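Before the break, one more example. Copy the sequence into your notebook; we will annotate it together after we see the structure.
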Amino acid sequence: EGLGMQSHVIRDRRVAPPAVPREDAPPTVVAFEHVTKAFTETVKGLDDVTLDVRRGEITVLLGLSGSGKSTFLRHVNGLHLPTSGQITCLGKRIDTASERELRRVRCWRPR
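Here is what the structure looks like once it is written out:
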């Protein structure tokens, strides 16, 4: 099964130095709310994932091959859309973002 089953999200609560995060970035830079990606009725790449990544936070995705790590990242940048749930990245809802807004999300980098 997907990310909710075999992988673990390990969160390091140390905050990066103040110069690293952009001040114009929202406090929560990535938010998944009950996100599921079903490839078929029995195969899920993501299973009810809820996660917030805050500005300056270091987050690691760790899991076995086929556990949903790449699927998760493809949802962050809008290359895949969820079967259900909502994803927000840098204040933009990924499912309703225009191609231009998605390019900004994909190319955003700290100053």
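The helical segments are 3-6, 69-76, 99-107. The longest strand covers residues 28-38. Try to locate both features in your own notes.
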